[in-house]
Amino acid sequence: MLILIDGNNLLHAAHGELEEYDLGRVRLCDRLGRWAAPTAHQVFVVFDGPDPPTGIQQQMRAAGLEVRFSGPRSADELIEETIEQSQSPGRLWVVTSDRAIQSVARHRRCRCTSSADFLIHLTTPDPKPEPKTPPAPTPGDERSRENADHWLRTFGYDPAEPADDTDLMT
Question: Per-domain residue ranges for the chain?
Fold first, then answer.
C-alpha cells in the first residue's frame, strides 16, 4: 500500500512533540521510516516549500520512505495531483486533515485518515502476538485417533512405527 502523507499537516498534529521546524521534519521522517521498515508499505511524504539543504535531505532518507518538497507549488496541489493520477487509488492511503484533499481522496475511493488519527497509529506500538498454543483435545479426538489406527492396521501398517514418506516421492 502507498501511504501519501501531507507532511506539514502531520507536523502540525505533532506540534507538541517536535520543537524546531527542520528538526521536526527530520524526526518525523525518521519515525515514519522506522514505522514503514517492517511493513510492505511505501510511504510518500510531501512538504511545502523548496528542498532543504543537502545535509537535511540526507537525514530524511529511510528505506520505504520517499520525501518530496512542493517547490513553488503547494504541497496540497502535489498531493491532489498524485491522488488524481493514481492508477490504483484503492491501494492509496491518504493522511491529511485538509478537507479539500480528503474530498478528492474519498471521491477516488482512497483510504483516508486524519493526521491526528494517523499520529496515534504511528506512535502506538503494535501489540506483540501471543504465542499460539495448540487447542485442547476435544472428546472426539481420541476416538478419531483410534479410528485412524484401525485403518492403518487394516492396510498392513503398524500405527506405532514412524511414517516413511520416501515411497511417496518416487
Answer: 2-123
133: left (phi over 0), alpha (psi -120 to 50) or beta: beta
CB atoms within 10 A of CB 146: 10
pLDDT in tens, 49-58: 999 999 888 9
Is 2-123 CATH 3.40.50? yes
Pairwise CA distance, residues 95 & 10, whole Å: 8
Predicted structure pTM score: 0.69
Three-state DSSP state, 20: coil
pLDDT digits (tens, 9 = 90+) for 69-117: 999 999 999 999 999 999 999 999 999 999 999 999 999 999 999 998 9
Nearest to 81 by CA among 105, 116, 65: 105
CB atoms near residue 31 (< 10 Å): 18
